[in-house]
């Protein structure tokens, strides 16, 4: 037991990594994505530019990791299953209302817009996003819908991927395009309309 | 009747305007939005930078006008009503399949991605987009759904705005996020699922 232990290199680099991710999120919120630079992030995080370039190939990739960290912290790093109380509409409304609240929170809004911009233009990042974020989330949503289908609450031949798109897409669209107010009421309407379907019941 | 008529200034400036819009669309397809510059567009169109700045406040606003022109040329400058053969599903599939084809066309893909990026980050442009493009298109879609509702093909209390979001949002999302293949079959599935609704018929 030496009095003066050498700093643990893996802990030190984890500290630097977290400082960089936090700086990236803070900065993108302040200056926007277009003006976000690796230099600026390095300065804010107190590391050299080369440290960042060693770990991330682009500011898009760095921001994506920062965003995954932010999303992970929100739910204690667990990818949580959707609630399943047996009431499908209520469970979906709970989830979509939480999404609306998150999208209306400035802490999420700016980095998520920046991330979506990169996804639109960068096919490699889009593939990474699809694999690391969209697919795991989509699987949790489908799991909840599968359970509803098993309980006879969804038609047996519903395509679960299309169902996920119908239930979760409209809120994302309205947020991205700003085509209308993003409210809890809108989330409820989407759930009710998607679940009830647009056609009147068969006689 | 002089032999050498003075050039008509309004025609000359219309020629310049169209040259600028065409140059903007060509250039954004070549270099992408981030590298698109007013200087580059001016050079390609054979006009001075000041001519462009006199007419448009930003490259986003210019690209938006260029995109409106492109969209307008596709349908002879008319905002066409949706087809109404009486078969709602068939009519919607026709429209959504055409949208899929357009989004898969490189001539539209790059400028539309650039436009959507700007909309995501620029609230003023988003408001302009909502007013000049989304709302008129949405009105045409609602008109078709209203006719179906009057014919008893949709439930009387369906919210038409939410119905439009469910029917037309998923294709746009899949294109923007590249979360899956954008095919005619997907368009058909979205229409069938949205129209049939997710719940089994009441007994």
Automatic annotation (TrEMBL), chains A, B:
Keywords: DNA-binding, Transcription, Transcription regulation. Residues 37-56 bind DNA. Gene3D superfamilies: Homeodomain-like (1.10.10.60), Tetracycline Repressor, domain 2 (1.10.357.10). InterPro entries: Homeodomain-like_sf, HTH-type_TetR-like_transc_reg, HTH_TetR, Tet_transcr_reg_TetR-rel_C_sf, TetR_C. The keyword Manganese does not apply. Residues 14-74 form the HTH tetR-type domain. It comes from the Bacteria. PANTHER family: HTH-TYPE TRANSCRIPTIONAL REGULATOR RUTR, TETR-FAMILY TRANSCRIPTIONAL REGULATOR. This is TetR/AcrR family transcriptional regulator. It comes from Streptomyces millisiae. The lineage of its organism: Bacteria, Bacillati, Actinomycetota, Actinomycetes, Kitasatosporales.
